[in-house]
Amino acid sequence: MQKVKIALLGLGNVGKGVWKILNMNKDEILKRSGYDIEISKILVRDINKERNLEVPKELFTTNFEEIIEDDSIEILVEVMGGVEPAIDYMLQGMRRKKHIVTANKMAIATNAEILFKTSREEGVMFHYEGSVGGGIPIIHGLNDNLVANKIEEVIGIINGTTNYILTKMTHEKISFREALAEAQNKGYAEADPTSDVEAFDAVYKLCILSSLAFDTVVNVNSIYREGITNIKPIDIEYAREFGYVIKLLGIIKEVNGELELRVHPTMIPAEHPLANVNDSFNAIFLKGNAVGDLMLYGRGAGELPTGSAVVGDIVSILRNKDKFAYHTYLENDQYREVRDMEKVQCEYYIRITVKDKPGVLGEISSIFGENNVSILSVIQKGKREEQVSLVFITHSTVEQNINNSINMISALEDSEKIENVIRIENLATN
Amino acid sequence: MQKVKIALLGLGNVGKGVWKILNMNKDEILKRSGYDIEISKILVRDINKERNLEVPKELFTTNFEEIIEDDSIEILVEVMGGVEPAIDYMLQGMRRKKHIVTANKMAIATNAEILFKTSREEGVMFHYEGSVGGGIPIIHGLNDNLVANKIEEVIGIINGTTNYILTKMTHEKISFREALAEAQNKGYAEADPTSDVEAFDAVYKLCILSSLAFDTVVNVNSIYREGITNIKPIDIEYAREFGYVIKLLGIIKEVNGELELRVHPTMIPAEHPLANVNDSFNAIFLKGNAVGDLMLYGRGAGELPTGSAVVGDIVSILRNKDKFAYHTYLENDQYREVRDMEKVQCEYYIRITVKDKPGVLGEISSIFGENNVSILSVIQKGKREEQVSLVFITHSTVEQNINNSINMISALEDSEKIENVIRIENLATN
């Protein structure tokens, strides 16, 4: 049995999970890694903060120098989150030949190039399984198990908070605000829920997945992003009538050699496996040209699930650190452009409030026709005063045609409001 | 770019998949592994057999000596199946310092000890991702990604043929025979379907999974096995009425320190993720004490999906072969006993044909009571001539009590036939 010293940078949710797992599963981890893992330092901002965790005070430090200067520490576990100083600390660590484990999606999505380049140059390992999908082994899946495949498509429910909210809205027919409040009560959503509900979190994760699936680097700002704040119970109800469920999906496809990357609420067939991924669960569905359809499902967040991924990465380093040579496969340093959203091809759900006057349906239908948008279904329902709700489901068309149609419809005198436009992915069900 | 030579032992379904993938994804595999992989020999029984595959004839050999004696061949890919000579060839290969990849569940389930021991002694890598769940990365998942967990439970749909048959029986209300015939037509079931429908195949796979989940070795013959040939449409219909779906499950649990291993048709709640795994898909659902619930879903068989796993293993060897040291975690050489089935605790569905006479229900109910079996629901339906069908759902009880009850009921003069006893797992749904 050998000993190894590691340091935690941060002791928030994930850091606590790592601490707990290393304690509760000590024997298993020792047996499986061959190492007795000692957390010898923990970087925190406030040593005296109440943490509900029995950690000897002498492990805490507020001074990163104490950690970086300690050559007996072989692995840095960065679980502080955010971009800086996390990036700076990881890079400093690599330059001091420390291996790095992180669960920091924001840091990787925004700084993948320098992190990979530095770890390659310094010959240290850099693992980040916890950054996407919590305990779901999707990063290693793409990096290792599925290397024999050309990945054709990745479709993921990669944000647990929004999935919880949409599940509540669907099952209990409550509003977004009510469901958000419940999520906040349960600790699934933060006081400021912007990062989740506006899909910034999902975009970071999709950025990481796309780079793995297509051996590339993607500028995170080029990914289309649309949150769930505009989803109304009535949209969910219409979706149900048409046989769909609304999920916030991250979508990666290669179309005509171009990379399509987008995160937005999406209607998918109610029988598709992703449609039954409920509450705060995450799932990543992918198609490989050899493996076919594959789905990984599990807890996408939480201290223990994400801790499971982080500790898995630590063990992976321990198993390899004495014989590590840099893998070819991490050299994803070629940037790829993301396909323009106007080229994206979908079916669309469009809900419009119009004045209840003769000829309105005709006017709108003509506009769709002029823009080559062919209509699959129309529903007119829910009369109230002088307004009426029109719902269209289109045949598959490019987004540009939809945008042009919407612009023209908005300009109509009889059109009160474009209430919602939701993309539909008619995923094949088996 | 380096070159590496490998040999295929066998060119059946999986072998063809490996050949195809190495050709169709050559560039990706080269980039991700750093190696140009050359299949330099293929062991077959009949060189002139029609294979519908463009393979240069000069690669074929019927003589294993040609392969084992060729020191330029670094990896043997054993895809011939069966126990012998597969085991012999793999062991010979290891002794000649060749790394081994196999998809042979039967060989591993029956000979794990000698295979692991020899690969350890010879310092070669031994990978077998394709042996369970086709392209689903469950072996590496348990071996690598989930090492931070104590695995508490593994429940899997690990045989695609029986899942196809049960799905057809459920959705189309057809008999086992009819569904089997369809499966045979589609190539999902073999002419002699025994290995699948009597659950031998699933038992081999469960044996492998249990050894990984619990760092142990299990005697494959000690695993309880029950196939699906006795499942009738009426059982599926009753299951539906009670909110269940019938699946052939492989179940691994640790109960009071004992290992519970069993493969049998099982009723599970219709809302559980496993209940929606249809057709020939496989899925493995597990609980870890850190990761929580996790499910991996995909194609459990087929030349390309299983080939995906095999080629993934080949790449894994290529990435590590110049710096490989034997992992601690493979040393699962401690045998563990399997828990006696009589101790297993479940709820039970019991369907009995009885004579339609007064007092029969009372007699049978009394027998259950005497044996401490408490009844949750009873349905009496489907009168026909002088017989009547009684269906009981019990509260949770040990299997011994059920067996004792069944024996006593069988001996009753008014009981015509115990038609079926199906275990119920009330898996939590989220």
List the helices and strands and how they pair.
The structure is a homodimer of 430-residue chains.
Chain A: E1 2-9, H1 13-24, H2 26-33, E2 35-43, E3 60-61, H3 64-68, E4 73-78, H4 86-95, E5 99-102, H5 105-122, E6 126-127, H6 138-145, E7 151-157, H7 160-172, H8 176-185, H9 194-197, H10 200-213, E8 224-225, H11 233-241, E9 244-255, E10 258-269, E11 281-288, E12 292-299, H12 303-320, E13 345-355, H13 360-370, E14 375-384, E15 387-394, E16 397-398, H14 399-410, E17 415-424
Parallel strand pairs in A: 1-2, 1-4, 2-3, 4-5, 5-6, 8-10, 10-17
Antiparallel strand pairs in A: 7-9, 7-11, 9-10, 11-12, 13-15, 13-16, 13-17, 14-15
Helix pairs in contact in A: 1-12, 4-5, 5-10, 7-8, 13-14
Describe, in plain words, how this protein is organized in 3D.
The structure is a homodimer of 430-residue chains. Chain A is of the alpha/beta class. Chain A contains 14 helices and 17 strands. The first copy, chain A, has helices spanning 13-24, 26-33, 64-68, 86-95, 105-122, 138-145, 160-172, 176-185, 194-197, 200-213, 233-241, 303-320, 360-370, 399-410, and strands at residues 2-9, 35-43, 60-61, 73-78, 99-102, 126-127, 151-157, 224-225, 244-255, 258-269, 281-288, 292-299, 345-355, 375-384, 387-394, 397-398, 415-424. In chain A, strands 7, 8, 9, 10, 11, 12, 13, 14, 15, 16 and 17 form an 11-stranded mixed sheet that branches. In chain A, a hairpin with a 2-residue loop joins strand 9 and strand 10 (258-269). In chain A, helix 4 (86-95) packs parallel to helix 5 (105-122), helix 5 packs parallel to helix 10 (200-213) and helix 7 (160-172) crosses helix 8 (176-185). Chain A starts with a strand and ends in a 6-residue tail after the last strand. The model of chain A is unreliable at 326-330 (pLDDT under 50). Chains A and B meet through helix 1, helix 2, helix 6, strand 12 and helix 12 of A and helix 1, helix 2, helix 6, strand 12 and helix 12 of B. Strand 12 (292-299) of chain A pairs antiparallel with strand 12 of chain B.
